[in-house]
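User: Hello, can you help with two protein structures?

Assistant: Certainly.
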Amino acid sequence: MRSVRARAALGATLVVAVALVVAGLAVLTVLRGNLTDRAGLEAEVAAREVAGQIALGVPYTDLELDDEETHPVQVTDEAGRVVAVSKDLEAVSGTGTDEVAPTSSAPARDDDDDDDDPARSEVSSGTPDFVSGTATVDGERADYRFAAVEVTTERDVTLTVHAGAPLAAEQEAVDTVRNAMLTGLPLMLLVVAVVTWMVTRRALRPVEGIRRELAAITASEDLGRRVPEPGSRDEIARLARTTNETLTVLEASVDRQRRFVADASHELRSPIASLRTQLEVGEAHPELLDVPGAVADTVRLQVLAADLLLLARLDAGERPGKAVVELGALVREEVSQRPADRIPPEVAVADRGSYEVVGSRGQLARVVGNLLDNAQRHAEGSVTVTVRPDGSEVLVEVTDDGAGVAPAEQDRIFERFVRLDDARSRDDGGAGLGLAIARDVATRHGGTLTVGTAPGGGARFTLRLPAAPVTRPGPG
């Protein structure tokens, strides 16, 4: 079944069916047990009545068994021989013996002995034995519940009185209840299935609305649309809100990707066009070929392509490495590779603590390099790099004495292809990807990259990275 409503209705119907069947069996069992116990009590009363007559000395032939059609009676001695039976009892089973005629060798009573002590006659007061069997009375065979009561005569002879009570009423009542259950069960299950179907259909109606809207969004590719949110506070309402939040994030991501592609195409077009122009001029007039300019455009194109590839890998979810990197040594190495025509950074590395972090050395080097490029581009006379531990983190601060970053622009400068000084040439200002890459790499390494104002008025970029865990040597 592909329909949730159908599966829900079927599941609810099966659960109710199992519950009703179990409950019905329990009711029938209890009902049969109660009626059987009632028949046993009735048989016990009949057996004790006959046993009382025997205890009072009534001869076997004079026992009053007027109710033999309802309560068939069989009296046996210790040897299992029949001494008395109901008049119309033709067959019996379940009482220990199938005989229904008194045995001639059974112990006889001395009816003329009136001097015997009647106190010696005794009816057992214990719980009688109960057994189910059959009896044929006056040609009609039926099921009975027999009770066996022992009685001791004045001659110290122990007899067992088997008296039965019919189980026809019990069987009729059980059959009636069972037939009623068998008749009502399908109707009840039908009602459960219909009600479950309707309730599930009503509950899933908002889901169908969400599905239709999502299908329309997929067909139209309009990520500005949103699914309807029901006014309830249930799981479906939360699903709709989560779906709309996902659409919002997806829309922003797609817009960001489109802007990225457009900006990348624009940034790539300029150096490619410039390089092509220079090559075409050089081909036509070799003496006019600007080789340094062509090399500069090629280098710029190479750097831009590398930045775009790195951003693509980061957006694809590339995880940083697990190498242990010593930030102090990394910063010194990056500073030593700075071009001589730029403002040389001053490096200050604290003498205490560990500067090891876990991550990708290449990506972290790119972060430090981008921060140094940005600081040297905007500094007027000095650039300072400080590396120091700060609790469970390692801090790298890059400070310049330039104009700084206005508070309103301190978050915007980390966006891709953003250059605050639009009048600055592309050669000096870059493509606006360095700080975006630096923050993205820092975030993926579990750290942060922020910008503030330096004490001298310039910009201060602070990179925070989690320190590598200290590995303690094992016992020697």
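That covers the first. Now for the second protein you mentioned:
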Amino acid sequence: MSTNEPAIRLRGLRKAYGHLVAVDGIDLDVPRGETFALLGPNGAGKSTTIEILEGYRDRTSGEAQVLGVDPGHGGLAWKARLGIVLQSSAEAAQMSVREQLAHFAGLYPNPRDVDDVIAAVGLREKAKTRISKLSGGQRRRVDVALGIIGRPELLFLDEPTTGFDPEARREFWGLVRQLKGEGTTILLTTHYLDEAAQLSDRVGVIAGGRLIEVGPVGVIGGAAARIPIVRWRDRTGGLHEQRTAEPAAFVASLAAETGGEPPELEVIRPSLEDIYLDLIAEHAGATTASEEQAA
């Protein structure tokens, strides 16, 4: 595969179940080495899209290329180039962590060192522990370890830090950055929008089976979505807020107008989560209006 060819290429991807359209004409390129976050509410079509990319689900129409191969016809050699961390998995509960990883490592032509992977996911002290004895968060780390043991070119991370405590999440972020530094392409889904902001080069927002926005983390939503919000209370306790591109000047004029610093004054710069929620709300409103016009 040429390094100029994207790791993932979709054109007009569509999946329908009778009259229900789960994925409705997605076009997307994910370059090699990029970390791309696919975000969307439950039922938006992201799980179906990912399952098509992984070769687990057939598409209804459109084109799909993953590492230069149609995922609907990918063989064992192609699958060995992928790493997949599902939302849930069924590990061999009676095997130890190290036994399970060693078994999986034997299935790949060029696996990572088992002990290095165990250390990378923070399970060194649990290496000899049966998986059945691990906590939910520790089992999730085993899932991640199994996903990276084969040294994948493309890694699918589906809600990878579910069950992680804050410290474990930060450690996992470091691991993802390490994989990215090694050239691994990563497709991430997560409900933690701070995680997407920390790890991703670009994000795509999917709703109603369509990609409604795609772009770099610092650009998505457009400049208007990033205008700061000044929020304060007046002397009667009423809450006010104002979007302004010049928050310092606005706060100065507000202080002069009120004769001092307004109570509970804060200047808020919209986060990726704020922008994401606005995009989803706008899409829902536009869909409702369209349906009402068609009725």
